[in-house]
From TrEMBL:
Organism superkingdom: Bacteria
Signal peptide, first to last residue: 1-17
Organism annotation: Chitinophaga sancti
Name used for this protein in its record: S41 family peptidase
PANTHER family listed in its UniProt record: CARBOXY-TERMINAL PROCESSING PROTEASE CTPA, TAIL-SPECIFIC PROTEASE
Length: 507
């Protein structure tokens, strides 16, 4: 009996060890052979050339060839999946599209998300620095973070740039998001799993470097902590997850504020929600006209995009000109999906089934009916002319933008800057482009060996944006007044950009 118990004990320990090994990072972050990576790279490049109409928008053929030549050289030795993932991120970032998104296979992501390995504090990008943003911790709010686990702050920020894709060449979102949004799972992607974090910092008003080591926390604990961060009261003002999609209020008898946090108020003009939205827009401009309101602020900050024709509706009250959504829009695919064997769907979270693929192809064929000379032009019915509406707003218009304005949000901003009467733009250059973007329709592909998923939009869009001397190619909407949040306002939870606009109005 004693021997049986000993045997059972050894068996249970062996099973436990086997289960522990099965749930180790090495199990999911498997080592890829040079052959596997070369095959995935070749597939990845072929997919981009066959489906991505934006591949050569900001890069020449020689530049794309050069970076892939570098990538193929890099995979001559075995790599872990995450190391290969870092390489793919650099390729997708190089293209210059804010709609590009890449993530590792779902099992690896799930493994990382269930680890007690997350950074336990919120940080904030302020005046080019990593600023401590958590209340009640041993580190004072407003402290400058100098190093984490011996990696200097500037090196940390630069390492996360490749995760923050942007239209063209601007880096504003890369700068802020490399701090604000990179200490969740991105940190684990980049630096692996840690039990603790050694942090070097300087408290506000001092030059003394202090050190502290703190334990890692779970993802749920991090989410709870992040929601309670010191800057949440100001951050929430422009957060589409917190605020209504659109809202209006009079700040005072002379100034109205129209917020557009996200353009998801209707899927299209056939959506039963759309007429109510249009009626609301009209009622606001009726109110502005009836009361002769001299100042109107349109706040687009934090707007990640959404659907048309939502974003065109307010523009019609701001202009004397006809305009279109697109000057030109096309894809480079025909009736069949290139490399369909690797096609995943339109979202990384859901794999399309055969029925959904059939319906998707029907929609694509209706939207892009014929591939001619390498371009499949958008059907004209999807690009109508918009005309000025009455009562048009004749007062002084101020548009607030920031580095997180993208897609339909930046598209509206480009139309406003192009066509609106008497407009002043305040804030930070948008991540979405002024002249061009790749958008409208997303496709997700999964690489066969690494299981990395890459999402990109297939429609090359030349926006109906007027050429302006302060708008170079490959840039977002550039403000007339560039205004970043200041450190003094951060400590007081004040909205630097809104207060700047109100001061302009008062002057």
């Amino acid at each position: 009996m004693k021997n049986v118990l000993i045997l059972l004990l050894f068996l249970s320990q062996g099973i436990s060890a086997q289960l522990l090994k099965k749930d180790s990072l090495q199990t999911y972050n498997k080592t890829l052979t040079p052959g596997e990576m070369k095959a995935d790279l070749q597939t990845f490049l072929s997919i981009r050339k066959g489906a991505n109409s934006g591949l050569y928008r900001y890069r020449t053929t020689q530049q794309i060839d050069s970076i892939y030549k570098w990538a193929f050289k890099e995979v001559k030795k075995p790599m872990t999946t995450l190391e290969f993932f870092h390489l793919i991120l650099q390729l997708t970032d190089f293209e210059g599209s804010c709609h590009n998104y890449t993530e590792p296979g779902e099992e690896l992501v799930a493994y990382l998300n269930r680890q007690q390995a997350f950074f336990p504090y919120a940080l904030k990008y302020i005046e080019g620095k990593m600023i401590f943003n958590t209340v009640g911790a041993a580190i004072p709010v407003g402290s400058e973070i100098l190093r984490i686990n011996d990696v200097p702050a500037q090196q940390l920020m630069q390492s996360f740039y490749k995760y923050c894709t942007t239209d063209g060449f601007n880096i504003t979102q890369k700068q802020s998001n490399s701090v604000d949004r990179s200490y969740g799972i991105r940190y684990l992607y980049e630096y692996g799993v840690s039990d603790s974090f050694k942090i070097a910092y300087q408290a506000p008003g001092t030059t003394l470097t202090q050190m502290i080591t703190v334990p890692a926390i779970t993802n749920d604990q991090r989410n709870d902590m992040f929601n309670k961060r010191f800057s949440a009261p100001v951050d929430s003002i422009t957060d589409w997850r917190v605020q209504a999609s659109y809202s209006f209020k009079m700040l005072n008898p002379n100034t109205g504020l129209f917020n557009f946090r996200i353009f998801n108020m209707a899927d299209d003009d056939k959506d039963p929600r759309f007429p109510g939205y249009v009626k609301y827009i009209d009622s606001v401009f009726q109110l502005l006209a009836n009361n002769n309101v001299p100042n109107l602020i349109i706040d687009l900050r934090g707007n990640p995009g959404g659907s048309d024709p939502n974003f065109e509706q307010p523009v019609m009250y701001l202009t004397d000109s006809n305009f279109k959504e697109n000057a030109v829009a096309y894809s480079i695919i025909g009736k069949d999906i290139p490399y369909e064997q690797c096609f995943w769907g339109i979202s990384t979270s859901h794999k399309m089934d055969s029925v959904e693929k059939v319906e998707g192809k029907k929609f694509l064929l209706d939207y892009f009916p014929a591939l001619i000379n390498g371009k499949n032009m958008q059907h004209p019915k999807y690009n109508p002319v918009y005309h000025p509406k009455s009562p048009g707003y004749k007062g002084k218009l101020y548009m607030l933008v920031d580095e997180n304005v993208a897609s339909a949000g930046s598209h509206m901003a480009s139309l406003v800057k192009s066509y609106a009467r008497n407009v002043t733009v305040v804030g930070v250059e948008t991540t979405g482009g002024y002249y061009y973007h790749n958008g409208h329709m997303a496709m997700v592909y999964e690489l066969p060996h690494s299981k990395i998923k890459s999402k990109f939009s297939i429609v090359h869009v030349e926006q109906d944006a007027l050429v302006k001397p302060d708008q170079p190619e490959g840039r977002g909407i550039i403000p007339d007044y560039t205004v970043w949040p200041t450190f003094a306002d951060f400590l007081q939870n004040r909205d630097t950009q809104m207060e700047f606009v109100l001061k302009l109005i008062n002057k």
